[in-house]
Every structure is written in C-alpha cells, then in structure tokens.
Amino acid sequence: MRHLYLHIPFCHRRCSYCDFNTYANMEHRIEAYVDALCQELAMLRDQLPPLPASPEAAALRPSIFFGGGTPSMLSPAQIERILQAAAEIVPLTGAEISLEANPGTVLGRDYLRDLRSLGINRLSMGVQSLHDPTLRMLGRIHTAAEAYASFNDARAVGFESINLDFIFGLPGQDIEQWRATLTEIIRWEVDHIALYSLILEENTPLYAQVTAGRLQIPDDDLTGAMYELAMEMLGAAGYRHYEISNWVRPSVSDRPDAPPALACQHNLAYWLNSDYLAAGAGAHGHVFPQRYANLRPIDSYITAVQSGRRPIAETTLLTSADLAAETMFMGLRLDIGVGFAHFAARVGQSLLDYYGPTLEQLSQQGLIECSAQRVYLTPRGRMLGNQVFAHFV
C-alpha cells in the first residue's frame, strides 16, 4: 500500500500555540507552490517504498493526507491539480483522501461539495475549542458557531468521515468548561475525535505569554483529570478509544483485535510504522532505512524544485534498533497494541526475543498486558504512556 503526505504551509493567521511549518500573509505564493508541489510529486514517482510485509499494514487502504498549515486555503482547481500529480504515486480509486480544514476558511457547501467531487472523502477540522474567548486568545479565525456550521455543511454534502480536533489544558480552562465541550461534541455525533493535551512550544507567542505570567495553564493534575473525563464521557457515549489521542464511532464491521473502520488510515500507517512518502515544504517522509525532511522556507522549497532537484534539507539513516523501537512506541499508542506477527514482519525478529525482559518489567508494573497475539497498554499504561515508551527509546 502507498501512503503520501502533502504539506500545505499557508495560513491566514498563525495561531499563538503553533510550532508547525506554516506562514501567514503568503497567499501570493500559493500558485507557484502548487506548481512546485506537482513537480516534486513527479520526482517521487521513482521513489516508491516497498509494499508492507505485515498483514496489519497491508490491510490499510492507500492514503493521501493534505496537512498544514491550512489546506482549505487552496482552491478546488489547485487541489485537483495536486491530486492528478499524486495519482501517479497513490491510485485515487479506493484511497482514503484526507484534507485538513480550518472552519474559518471553509466557505460553505459549494466549496465542500467541490472537494467531495474531487474524491476527498475524509475531512479533518481544527476546531480546538468551543469557547469563543479562548478561540480569540489562540488566534483562531472562527467561532464555535462557525465550527458547528462547517461541520453540518460537510455532513450535508456527503462526507463519509469527519474528524474534529480539540485541545485541552488550555489557559483559563477548567473541568466544567471541558465537560461542556465534550457534551457538545457528543451531541453533534461526530465520527472521529482527536483530543490533544496542550504542549507549550518554545518560540510561540503562547509560550511567551505563559512563561511571562500573563496567562496561566492548568496544572498536570487538572490536565490529567480532563483526559480521564474525556475517556469516561466518550466511552459512555459509545466511542472507541482506539488510539491514545483518538476516539471513533464504531461500525458494525469492527473487530476488537483490529483498527476500527473509521480510523484514519493515514495515521494508522504512522502508528504501524509503515513507510510513506511526503512532499511539500518541511514535509517528513520515511522509507526505511532512511527518514528525510524537506526544506522548510516556502521560497527555498520552490527554488530547489524549479532547479530540478529534490528539496531535501536533511536525511537520517535508521538502524534496525531504530526500526524496532519505533515499531513499539508508535504501535503501543493503539488500543490493539503491537501484534507479535506485525513486529516480526516489520523488524525481522521475534518480539519476545527482542524485548522480552522489557515486556516482563512493564507487565509487572501493570503498564502492559500480553495476549497470545499481541502486547498492549493497560488503562494505567495509557495514563503513563510516555514513561512506557521511554523503555523502547
């Protein structure tokens, strides 16, 4: 299977917490960027990664993921051109094609209908909060009402799968405000929900405001309580907590020992430590034994591609130990954990032979459990996930 990430680094306004490779007030470079992105995709046609040996990875649908930045700043015609170029790498028929969208840039049902007609079948909206003063503080350009309207519009034009992103542990957020947000999300009957604990990134305005004492964020105990409340409320509403930060409405075809049908296929490729290609400014790709990162500045990226060379800024050579470690700490994020057959197919060695003493130690601490087919986190292990993952780094 083929997986392709496409980075669209444009934003109307840079959010106060964002440390991604994004740029505001660069709309005049979008057309040249689209040209360069299509040229880079042509260069990647001969760089296809091998097909996966793991049955779990092979079961995934091929995927294309438009990330950002704000891909919904592109016109349908520009997205169509990119998809035509991407089709040389990932056949569009049968693929999961995701596009990240900011509710403040989704201009009604006509735009969404055009996206749907191009074959985009999964929409991921960065809502982040349903509290308007918090949205303004974060630098978001939409309101809670506009987010709900965009969600309803996407439903109305027939999107098969819609994800909404939210952040918890935000400045000024308390448990009751978070409870109200979860109650509203459940009322909307969202297909897929991604909930992320705020990470203060250096060199962001929010980091400067918090460290200067102008804003105060919840402490670790309160943030942990928010995560526990999400698990409780979403679980009671019937959502499956299939990955540490992701919940999904179950389908009748779902099996408890396999990822759910509405899980993001592209992200599953990451969590299964599959190979994938990436294109665009600052995009990161992974074709074992190498990981690569593209040039980050938009103009540097465009110039490199126009000169006829791949716009790679750096490459990292991965060892077999890196492959084993990444297969474990990425796969353990899933509720199904890491299958013994998957590890052996990906790494070429038995999981128990490779990590037997580590697994025994974590099991004795109540952080993991083992079945006949796989190893997975316990509920306590999910709360202490980073401590578990550190054993494999």
Helix content: 40-55%
Strand proportion: 15-25%
How many angstroms separate the termini?
27 Å
Quick one: CATH class of the largest domain? Alpha Beta
Indicate the mean pLDDT.
93
CATH architecture descriptor name of the largest domain: Alpha-Beta Barrel
Radius of gyration: 21 Å
Strand order of the largest sheet: 9-10-8-7-6-5-4-1-11
Biggest sheet record: 9 strands, mixed
Number of helices, counting only DSSP H or I runs of 4 residues or more: 16
Shape by Cα distribution: globular
Provide the CATH superfamily of the largest domain. Answer: Aldolase class I
What do these coordinates show?
It is a single chain. The protein has 393 residues and is α/β, with parallel strands linked by helices. The protein has 2 domains: 3-271, TIM Barrel; 320-390, Arc Repressor Mutant, subunit A (Orthogonal Bundle), CATH 1.10.10. 40% of the residues lie in helices and 20% in strands. Strands 9-10-8-7-6-5-4-1-11 form a 9-stranded mixed beta sheet, sandwiched between helices. The chain has a 3-stranded antiparallel beta sheet with strand order 12-13-14, with no helix packed on it. β5, α4 and β6 (122-128) form a beta-alpha-beta unit. α1 (30-44) runs parallel beside α3, α4 (108-117) packs across α6 and α7 (175-188) packs parallel to α9. The longest helix is centred in the middle third of the chain and has 17 residues, at 220-236. Probably acts as a heme chaperone, transferring heme to an unknown acceptor. Binds one molecule of heme per monomer, possibly covalently. Binds 1 [4Fe-4S] cluster. The cluster is coordinated with 3 cysteines and an exchangeable S-adenosyl-L-methionine. Keywords: 4Fe-4S, Chaperone, Cytoplasm, Heme, Iron, Iron-sulfur, Metal-binding, Oxidoreductase, S-adenosyl-L-methionine. One of its GO terms (biological process) is porphyrin-containing compound biosynthetic process. Residues 1-240 form the Radical SAM core domain. Its main location: cytoplasm.
